[in-house]
Amino acid sequence: MSAPLVAATAAPALAIAFWRNAMAVGVLSPFVLLRSRGELRRMGRRAVLLSVAAGCVLALHFGLWLPSLSMTSVASSTALVTTTPIWTTLILRLRGQRRPGLVWAGSALAIVGVVTVSGVDFSTSARALGGDALALAGGMAAAGYVLLGAEVRRTVGTAAYTYVCYGTTAVVLLVACLVSGASVGSGYSADTWAKLVALTVAAQLLGHSLINRVVRGLGPSVTSTAILLETPGAALIAAVWLGQRPPLAVYPGLVVILAGLALVILSGRREGRATPEPETGV
Fold first, then answer.
1. Domain-located, residue 278
2. Domain named EamA: which ranges (predicted)?
3. Three state DSSP letters for the chain
């Protein structure tokens, strides 16, 4: 629901990103401050700094991706931003973690799909190609967000980490709105506010918070790969609700991206069966 709702909301992209995080913090505040206040106090300096860093990277992700939705199609933008597993794999490799050959094959196949989609949009317009570049950069930023979250979640619960992360993201995006002159509420219609609330519930509280919940047990690779399901879902919703139907040549590229990411999933499942992860608790 995230991409179609953003594309349908009549507000600046940075303001949309700010409100989805600020509203989420508002909803979480009574629960976290009443039930997880002790956990917040017990967060060490390293965990707090990493949570703040994750919030800054999440703000960068939103700041890059959301504007792309007004420049290119929902299908193309979502396909490119969900290439997160490729960048997660590359970062893990740079940190010394060896990945199976099937992961690299899947990543290479997904990159071919990215080039295909971008080539089609280049022939459509330079603006669409610019949107593709922003979405791709947003996917890279999302990889950093997932990896930082996985590190924090080793020792910190979902509620405390999410609260610090979203709070940081909201502050960074508010500053970005003020610096850029983006309106954060003036002149918004009731329909716009309703869509911001829907976006907060569907994409932020359910979407991102569930990612933060499962990344501890599933690990960053599998968690980031699961995000690929956003691509067909967002494209279908945008086609039915917004009437967005990208050029037919885009669809083979989307299929190639999904096929490549599916190989990454398959490799992760095989690796998990061969070398099960140690018990991490609940």
1. no
2. 10-118, 131-265
3. CHHHHHHHCCCCHHHHHHHHHHHHHHHHHHHHHHHCHHHHHHCCHHHHHHHHHHHHHHHHHHHHHHHHCCCCCHHHHHHHHCCHHHHHHHHHHHCCCCCCHHHHHHHHHHHHHHHHHHHHHHHHCHHHHHHHHHHHHHHHHHHHHHHHHHHHCCCCCHHHHHHHHHHHHHHHHHHHHHHHCCCCCCCCCHHHHHHHHHHHHHHHHHHHHHHHHHHHHHHHHHHHHHHHHHHHHHHHHHHHHHCCCCCCCHHHHHHHHHHHHHHHHHHHHHHHHHCCCCCCCC
Establish if 280 belongs to a structural domain: no
Total count of domains within the chain: 1
Taking the CA atoms of 74, 76, 81 and 84 in sequence, report the sign of the dihedral they define: positive
- Return the pLDDT at 280: 34
Domain span at residue 9 reads 2-272
> Residue 186 is encoded by which pair of tokens?
């003036």
pLDDT averaged over 10-residue windows placed end to end, the chain, 282 residues: 92 96 95 90 94 98 95 87 83 79 80 76 80 94 92 91 96 97 93 96 88 79 70 82 81 82 70 45 32
> Tokens 């690779």 label which residue?
221
